[in-house]
Amino acid sequence: KAWLDINDNDYDKVKTELEAYADWVAKVQHKADPNDIDVRIEPKFTIPDGEPYTGGWCRPQTDGPALRAMAMSKWGMLLKSTGNGDPNSVWEIVKFDMAWVTENWRQDGCDLWEEVRSNDFFFNRMAYIYSLNVAADFGDMLGQDTGAYRTVAEEIKGETQGHWRDGFLYESTNRPYDGAVIHSIATFGEYLFPPSSNEAAATIQVLAKAFCQEYPINQKEISAGKPGLLIGRYPGDSYAGGNPWQLLTAVLGELFYLGGQATYKDIERRGDFSLRYADYKDWISLLRLEETATAVDLAAAQVAAGDAVMTSLWGHVQDAGGRIDEQIDKHTGAQASAEGLTWSYANILHSLHARAAVQTLRESLRTQAV
């Protein structure tokens, strides 16, 4: 998904990587599983043979089938719309993974960080809802019957509404405060709790306070008058020191940009307008907007907040020659843990792509106003 997005779904730019990924998925989907689980919910495979990893790990990883099917659906839709490749063969890949989702989405599994277990992770539920709808869109293009996908997506959506509780969106009952929620809203929020929602703003506010208190580097930079904030996995994290994560900080920046984009799209439709407090109360509180603020003020503040987060992140990675690691030491601000983490690169590039999109929209509105 990230690779398709940052390349604007340009077939020629993504063809090599997506063809290889489709071949990989088709191979690993049907491997014999040595760990006594469905191979589709294995967390890891060895490279290049694609055999399921047999070492100790948190199993099963139940978000896997939906995420693979979603990525393959987007690839299949690109093939269909450009008249390239064989989208029907991609549909077979999607259909096989989605069969697991529709039948087993309530199954117990491991969280995004592969540490705790639940059958009700917010990240997984949001991924299911989004992926089922994307797969349905792909199937519709091919004339397939996809009604079951949308029905299950609505069922999950109804049950996931309950994750809004006590003024924020929680990840799971055994780990309520989690940066995975920020990732979920930014990546999967098209159908529930979108980035522009009051729930998104309220959750940012709760988690920002928690991570500000958690990391001395945040307190130090705030005291020095530096804008922005670094966030991590969850309060009390102890893995590799329990630090801020680059990939989560980047997705927080993206969430602000997506909120700004939604506001600018409202302005494009309606023109500038005064903010009705009941409709925007959590954004008004989070960004400390004046009572007289308008939509233009809100959009500008959302983008500025994203810039503050990304500027803070940049300050801790700029001297590494482009290398982005997994974590930032919570005391010193130096990069730490796994070096050159692919997920970190992907989220930073995706956030910057979102910023470019909102900037283009903002400039278009300014040109129209002249």
- Sequence of secondary-structure elements: HHHHEEHHEEHHHHHHEEH
Quaternary structure classification: single chain
Helix vs. strand class: mainly alpha
Number of helices: 13
- Spatial gap, N to C terminus: 36 Å
Molecular shape: globular
Q: How would a crystallographer describe the biggest sheet?
A: 2 strands, antiparallel
Number of strands: 6
Compute the average pLDDT: 97
**How large, in whole angstroms, is the Cα Rg?**
21 Å
Roughly what percent helix? 55-70%
Placed side by side, the strands forming the largest sheet appear as 1-2
Strand content: under 5%
Low-pLDDT residue intervals, each spanning 5 or more residues: none
How would you explain this protein's 3D organization?
With 370 residues, this protein is mostly helical. 58% of the residues lie in helices and 3% in strands. It contains 13 helices and 6 strands. It has helices at 2-6, 11-28, 64-82, 87-104, 122-141, 147-160, 180-188, 198-214, 216-223, 246-270, 277-287, 295-317, 342-369; strands at 109-110, 117-118, 164-165, 168-169, 327-328, 335-336. Strands 1-2 form a two-stranded antiparallel ribbon. Helix 7 (180-188) packs parallel to helix 10 (246-270), helix 8 packs across helix 9 and helix 10 (246-270) runs parallel beside helix 13. It is globular, with a radius of gyration of 21 Å. The chain starts with a helix and ends with a helix. The mean pLDDT is 97.
